[in-house]
C-alpha cells in the first residue's frame, strides 16, 4: 500500500511585483497571501499572482477581507464562471443567500440557528466528511472561496488535504493501479454515508452519479493528484465492496497529518482552495448554540475529467 517517502519542499516566502506576499503554512499545502484587497477590482497581475499562488500551494488564506456578498461575487468571477445553483442540491426551503452562494452557515432565512432535525442542517453535516466541492457534477468545481463572516474559534476548523502530495507518496504499484480508474460521484453517496436518505424522487434524478477520473493532471503545473471525495460510491468495473474498501484505504493515506493544513478561522478570513487538487472537511462544533456564518462562492473547471453523456 501507499508509503510516504517524499522529499519535502522547503517553504519559501515570495513577493510579487504587484505587492502581494505569500508565506507558506506547511511544507505541502496552504499559504497566507497578504497585500491584496479582495473588496476592489483586481489588476491582471493580481489575478495572475493569486492563480500562481493557488497552483503552488492549493489553498490560500487572505486575512482581513471584510467583503459584502457583491464584492465576494465580483472577486470570485476573476477565477472562472460561477457555479450557479450551489444551494439547490438538496431542496431545503427558503434560501438565506442568493443562489450564487453556498450557504454553509447554521442560520435560516430569519437569522435563527437551524434546529437539530432541520433538513438543511442534516444535509450540511456531509461537509464533515472529506470531500471535494461539486465532484458530483460532470463539470466539477475549480476554486471555492469561503468567507468567514461570523467564525467559531475553538472548534469548527476547516481542514485541507493535499491530493498532489498524496499521489506523489503512492508506491509504484498503487500508482499504476489508480492511473486509469474512473469513479462514480453523487451527493446521494456522501449523504447516505451518514444515514441521510431524505431525497425527493426528482432529487434522485438530478443527483444521478457522474464519472470522474481518480487521477487528475493539473493543467498548468502538470502535477498529478488523486481525485477523492466522500461523494464516491463506486469504481467503474469493480465490485462495489472492493471499490469502497480501496477508496477508504486511499482516503486514509491521503488525509494523513503530513498532507493536511488545519485552518483556524479569524473573522473576515477569505480562504480559497483548488478542488482539483485538495479535499477538505469542517470539524464538529456546537452548531445548535453557536452561530457560524460562512458563505461560499465557487467557480467551475474547464470541462469534465472523463467523457460522459451530458447531464
Ligand atoms: C464548503 C465546506 C467547510 C466549512 O464550504 O464547501 O465544505 O468549514 N465548508 O464550513
Ligand atoms: Mn465543501
- Count of helical regions: 8
Low-pLDDT runs: none
Q: Which percent bin holds the helix content? A: 10-25%
CATH-derived topology? Double-stranded beta-helix
CATH H level, superfamily name: Clavaminate synthase-like
Report the sheet-strand fraction: 15-25%
Give the neighbour order of strands across the main sheet: 1-2-3-4-14-6-16-5
Q: What is the CATH-assigned architecture? A: 4-Layer Sandwich
Order of helices and strands: EEEHEHEHEEHHEHHEEEEHEEEE
How many DSSP-defined strands?
A: 16
What's the end-to-end separation, in Å? 35 Å
What class do helices, strands and sheet pairing give? alpha+beta
> How would you sum up the global shape?
globular
Radius of gyration: 19 Å
Largest β sheet strand count, sense and barrel closure: 8 strands, mixed
Indicate how many domains the architecture comprises: 1
Bound molecules: N-oxalylglycine, manganese (II) ion
Overall pLDDT: 93
Can you walk me through this structure?
By secondary structure, the protein is of the alpha+beta class. The chain has helices at 44-57, 69-76, 119-124, 163-168, 172-178, 187-193, 201-206, 240-254, and strands at 14-15, 21-24, 31-34, 59-62, 102-103, 141-150, 158-162, 182-185, 210-213, 215-217, 224-226, 232-235, 260-263, 270-274, 278-282, 293-300. The protein has one domain (14-300): Double-stranded beta-helix. The protein is built from 8 helices and 16 strands. Strands 1-2-3-4-14-6-16-5 form an 8-stranded mixed β-sheet, covered by helices on one side. Strands 13-7-15 form a 3-stranded antiparallel β-sheet. The protein has a 3-stranded antiparallel β-sheet with strand order 9-8-12. The chain is globular. The structure holds N-oxalylglycine and manganese (II) ion (MN).
Amino acid at each position: 500500500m501507499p508509503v510516504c517517502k517524499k522529499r519535502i519542499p522547503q517553504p519559501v516566502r515570495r513577493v510579487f511585483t504587484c505587492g502581494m506576499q505569500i508565506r507558506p503554512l506547511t511544507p505541502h499545502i496552504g499559504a497566507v497571501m497578504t497585500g491584496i484587497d479582495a473588496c476592489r477590482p483586481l489588476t491582471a497581475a493580481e489575478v495572475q499572482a493569486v492563480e500562481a499562488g493557488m497552483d503552488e500551494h492549493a489553498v490560500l488564506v487572505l486575512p482581513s477581507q471584510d467583503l459584502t456578498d457583491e464584492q465576494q461575487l465580483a472577486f470570485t468571477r476573476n477565477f472562472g464562471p460561477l457555479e450557479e445553483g450551489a444551494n439547490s442540491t438538496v431542496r431545503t426551503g427558503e434560501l438565506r443567500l442568493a443562489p450564487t452562494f453556498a450557504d454553509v452557515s447554521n442560520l435560516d432565512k430569519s437569522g435563527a440557528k437551524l434546529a437539530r432535525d432541520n433538513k438543511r442542517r442534516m444535509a450540511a453535516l456531509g461537509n464533515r466528511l472529506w470531500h471535494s466541492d461539486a465532484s458530483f457534477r460532470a463539470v466539477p468545481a475549480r476554486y471555492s472561496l469561503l468567507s468567514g463572516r461570523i467564525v467559531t474559534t475553538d472548534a469548527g476548523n476547516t481542514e485541507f488535504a493535499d491530493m498532489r502530495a498524496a499521489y506523489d507518496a503512492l508506491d509504484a504499484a498503487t500508482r499504476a493501479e489508480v492511473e486509469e480508474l474512473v469513479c462514480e460521484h453523487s451527493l446521494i453517496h456522501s449523504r447516505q454515508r451518514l444515514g441521510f436518505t431524505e431525497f425527493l424522487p426528482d432529487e434522485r434524478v438530478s443527483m444521478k452519479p457522474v464519472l470522474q477520473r481518480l487521477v487528475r493532471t493539473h493543467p498548468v503545473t502538470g502535477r498529478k493528484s488523486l481525485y477523492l471525495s466522500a461523494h464516491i460510491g463506486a469504481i467503474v468495473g469493480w465490485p462495489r465492496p472492493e471499490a469502497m474498501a480501496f477508496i477508504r484505504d486511499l482516503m486514509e493515506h491521503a488525509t494523513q497529518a503530513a498532507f493536511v493544513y488545519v485552518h483556524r478561522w479569524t473573522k473576515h478570513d477569505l480562504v480559497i482552495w483548488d478542488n482539483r487538487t485538495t479535499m477538505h472537511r469542517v470539524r464538529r462544533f456546537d452548531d445548535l448554540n453557536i452561530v457560524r456564518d460562512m458563505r461560499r462562492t465557487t467557480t467551475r473547471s474547464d470541462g469534465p475529467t472523463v467523457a460522459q453523456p451530458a447531464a
